[in-house]
Design a protein that fits this description.
Structural class: mainly alpha
Radius of gyration: 23 Å
Shape: globular
CATH superfamily of the domain at 350-448: Tetratricopeptide repeat domain
Length: 448
């Protein structure tokens, strides 16, 4: 890449376009307008953003987004932008002027992390593989910790792409085998394996891997405030992951316990966005228990923390889930205002899965009001949005809800088709509650 003109040889898109995406992820489509306004004020074109003008531009951007993100997060975003461009410069430097291998690896890892954060998974994979190539060619010039980090990041990228689970596991295993001596890095590898096993329905293995990660972290003594934040974040993330596994296993007591541990840590850290996310997960557990009062209370608390942390996208998700809980508990009329608000918020974000989930919840809302045609249109839109997305769990949920509509409407054939498709995924996943529910519906229609 030539950072002066933003023309990436390895990334395939201008730096300006990537900055738009980064800001959109943080503050919605308003981020694009903020970037273009600052470029206009500095008399530079989007495609002209580069190393020479990025520092003053990033300062202006940071100040402009403070009302949307808060000062701390705005400064973090500015720092991340500058680190990213420096990494791109290092990556694109001619071979004759290249810095030492460890610096090259760090640059590629930074690029991979930023690409992954903005959803450019193929480009993230390419950067992570470049880092891995440098590690293998550099031999002992690259320390063991960096080698392990490289393998772990490549595993994370592959895991996010859904299709690379086998290689992702191999990369995590390789990172662990490096025996770098860094216990924190080792714990993150076991956490990554736990997340991967959960996604592939290997719940017992996931529990063992998450617990192993926690045990390693328990033996690490923080020597600075920064290290304590890092360790606490990892612990809370692992407890949240355990909560997800136990929810799938319908061990609601354990799911609540681990989500509450995660919540306690994040709240003590004053990490409001993550607190909001965990409240959302906790509410899902109460929904599974059919304790809608506690579910609704947890969703409402989650919304409060999302607002406090200026986590708009997560707020949109939580509002959607709150509307679902209200609908399921017989209060569909109360759900409408939350769906409207979620739609306003999520319209600012390019998040296909969130939009599909929202359409599915609108479908449920109209179904309960027996507004069949509007319900059908929303469910169809939800399924169409998921086309090409690696989100089988959300697709199965929509198929189940859509099938329930046809069952209530008396269209048995359409209901059976959709419910059987949903059941196939839930059996792979091992969700006992959903399996029992769908099998019961099929049995009612004489198809079990």
């Amino acid at each position: 890449m030539n950072p002066e003109n933003g023309d990436q040889k390895k990334g395939g898109s201008s730096l300006g376009v990537e900055l738009e995406t980064m800001l959109e992820r943080e503050v919605g489509f308003m981020g694009k307008h903020i970037l273009r306004k600052q470029c206009q004020d500095m008399d530079i074109k989007l495609e002209e953003i580069g190393a020479s003008n990025l520092k003053p531009l990033s300062t202006r951007i940071s100040k402009a987004i403070i009302p949307l993100t808060g000062e701390k997060r705005a400064l973090e975003i500015q720092k991340g932008i500058l680190e990213y461009v420096k990494a791109l410069e290092t990556s694109a430097a001619p071979s004759a002027t290249r810095v030492e291998e460890s610096t090259q690896v760090e640059a590629e890892l930074t690029i991979a992390e930023k690409k992954l954060a903005i959803g450019r998974t193929r480009e993230a994979e390419a950067a992570a593989r470049r880092a891995m190539d440098i590690v293998k060619q550099g031999g002992k010039s690259v320390d063991l910790i960096t080698q392990a980090r490289t393998a772990r990041l490549l595993a994370r990228v592959l895991s996010s792409m859904s299709k690379g689970h086998g290689e992702a596991k191999a990369m995590y295993d390789e990172a662990i085998a490096e025996r770098s001596g860094d216990r924190y890095e080792l714990a993150l590898c076991w956490n990554g394996l736990g997340s991967l096993s959960w996604r592939t329905g290997e719940h017992k293995t996931a529990l063992e891997q998450y617990q192993r990660a926690l045990k390693i972290l328990a033996g690490i003594q923080a020597v600075s405030k920064g290290e304590k934040v890092r360790l606490d974040t990892a612990r809370a993330t692992i407890h949240s992951g355990l909560g997800n596994v136990y929810l799938d296993l319908v061990d609601t007591r354990s799911a609540i316990e681990h989500n509450e541990r995660a919540l306690e840590i994040f709240r003590n850290m004053e990490n409001w966005p993550e607190s909001g996310r965990v409240y959302n997960n906790l509410a899902r557990v109460y929904e599974e228990m059919r304790d809608f009062r506690k579910a609704i209370d947890s969703y409402e608390r989650g919304i409060q923390f999302c607002q406090k942390g200026k986590a708009a996208r997560m707020e949109g998700w939580t509002l959607t889930n709150l509307a679902s809980a209200l609908t399921d508990s017989g209060h569909a009329d109360d759900a409408r205002k939350h769906l409207d608000r979620a739609e306003r918020i999520l319209s600012d974000f390019s998040d296909p899965v969130a939009h599909s989930k929202l359409d599915c919840m609108w479908g449920k809302y109209h179904r309960e009001r027996r507004e069949w045609q509007m319900s059908i249109e929303r469910f169809k839109r939800s399924i169409a949005v998921l086309a090409g997305q690696s989100a089988p769990d959300y697709l199965a949920t929509t198929q189940e809800e859509f099938g329930t509509l046809y069952q209530k409407k008396g269209d048995t054939e359409s209901a059976i088709t959709l419910l059987k498709e949903a059941l196939e995924w839930q059996r792979k996943k091992g969700d006992k509650y959903r399996i029992t529910k769908i099998e019961g519906q099929l049995r009612e229609m004489g198809k079990m």
